[in-house]
Amino acid sequence: xxxxxxxxxxxxxxxxxxxxxxxxxxxxxxxxxxxxxxxxxxxxxxxxxxxxxxxxxxxxxxxxxxxxxxxxxxxxxxxxxxxxxxx
Length: 87
Description:
This protein has 87 residues and is an alpha+beta fold. It has helices spanning 3-16, 50-64, 74-82; strands at 19-24, 32-36, 39-45.
């Protein structure tokens, strides 16, 4: 599965969980999840590679969602598990 397709699916998961998605040019090394007041936002750095943003997005999905409780395509689930940060 290509990086941009993985990123699209991960962004859709965030959107389904009331995370607002914003796309902004940030120099290629920005983006990520943030919370402003009671609203969660995910910034996509339009100057970053899809692969980098997919990893950042996977970390955000792992942070806010219980991926064990929902159906996620096997390729996406594998990607999420590979990019889970130990806490």
